[in-house]
Amino acid sequence: FWKEKYYLTYFLFPLSVVQAWSVLCAGHHNRVRACDAYGCNGLYKAVDLVCDDYSIINTPFSGSLAGPVSRKDPAGYQFDGVKLLSDVHCVKIFNIRPYRYSGPVTQGEALGYLLPLQEQFPGITSHLELQMCDGTDPSPFI
């Protein structure tokens, strides 16, 4: 019996599919960024979620912060953020200034705030960027 239960739980209905992440950007309900003058969502195997400059970013799932992350786009602009790990997920969250870079966090806890994209890219849809550590698509979780 336990083998059947294990098979059904972990292979047919993995935890990562069953448990949705909470809303990341206060007041925006995980709305995916559409195309604007600066491009479209997901150009870096990621999902861009609409968020106002300086808005509070909430932790999408409980886990541990695993330090700062950064990436550069083809034009040379650097985007900073933080890595969040759990037993199920590993995600990099860009365009944010976290309140801290290490230690445990709880789902829904204030993680930091969105960096002001409008200052560097006037007219862009301000957003945070979610990128799974293994390069897979984070869309199913939001």
From TrEMBL:
Coiled coil segments of this chain: none
Instruction: Give the keywords, sorted.
Output: Disulfide bond, Metal-binding, Signal, Zinc
Q: Look up the domain of life of the source.
A: Eukaryota
A Gene Ontology molecular-function term? metal ion binding
- Secretion signal: which residues? 1-20
Q: Which family does it belong to?
A: Belongs to the LECT2/MIM-1 family.
What is the protein's species of origin?
Oreochromis aureus (Israeli tilapia)
Q: What is this protein called?
A: Uncharacterized protein
Keyword Disulfide bond among record annotations: yes
On whether rRNA-binding is a keyword of this UniProt record, the answer is: no
Q: Which PANTHER family match?
A: LEUKOCYTE CELL-DERIVED CHEMOTAXIN 2, LEUKOCYTE CELL-DERIVED CHEMOTAXIN-2
